[in-house]
Predict the structure of F-box protein SKIP1.
Amino acid sequence: MTAISMTLPKMDTSATKTELPSPFQARANDNHHHRSMEKRSEDDETESRPSCDWAELTHECLINILSRLSLEHRWRGPMLACKSWLHACQDPSLHSSFDLETRFNSELESSRWWTPDFERRVDSMLRSVVDWSDGSITRIRTRHCSNQALSFAAERFEHFWFVILSWSSLLFKLDFIWKVEARDYGIPILSSARSGQTHSLRCRNIEVLSIKSCPNVTDASMATVAFRCSLLMELDISYCYEISHESLALIGRNCPNLKILKRNLMNWLDPSQHVGIVPDEYLNACPQDGDVEAAAIGKSIPHLEHLELRFSKLSAKGLASICEGCSNLEYLDLFGCVNLTGRDIANASANLKNLKEIKRPNFYIPRSVFHTERYGHWRLYDERFQTDVFRI
């Protein structure tokens, strides 16, 4: 920064100087003396204070400090500082959760998020955190990850499946060698002498999985999740159009603790908010089998307490299947479900004794989408679509 010098005209201070009355002059002198003493004391304290060398922090102390930072802050700062800090950032205790959802929510959606390059970046972070967690990760909240990365996250927790027939002394020896090597790598082993099956039980602890807006996640990786993550309690597969009702049924059968399911679709009635951001071919691929998915939910996930189906195309039949099979529902979100009437919702939800909140399909329907003239009267139109906000 370049200093700017200014030359001021000299003033005759003798002519303008005003003598202060003695009490004020004494007080001014005292204040000046006090400030000088304070400054001298601060200087002495700074000189006597021991210098702090961050490189001398113990590993435990450094981890304690890093635990107070968010995942994003650790990746952008301490991990780039030095090798010892990078090693500390990889400690398993810091990676019980992988949460990028707060970052996504803090910014406006961008078309860049839907590119292969962005997906590779998210995949790289997810794979790293899963590796560093050493099986301790319990929550994954992200978007735009790939099929391969999600399968990696699930398979990471159960690497080996060996079936060894222990009737041969040679196979006994191979079985023993393999177990020793596995333990050397820190993999807990559970053996079944009866069947000869050997499993790795390395962390099936994922309880929360949120993978919104993942266009390349399919039933293949969801099958891996269903078989490997049996402790799953919350699942968000909103805007994942390559996931079908088969995954819902499989997860329901293998994850008995599932309480929260979010299967929201994009606003296909008025997709203007997504145009130019989400690829057109993906917008047009909105799932049409709402009743089939509803039947899978009602039959396979009986312990649900929270269900979101925004802009689903299910009908009264599908809603009845859900309400009959999921009698413990406390929260039901049906916003944008145009095929449901108020009567359909009242009839289907009558047996939901624990229901505390239900979001009805209230939304704005432009005239270009539905021809309202055939209803003859706005009251009939509102009864059909529950559009409390649409009035003449």
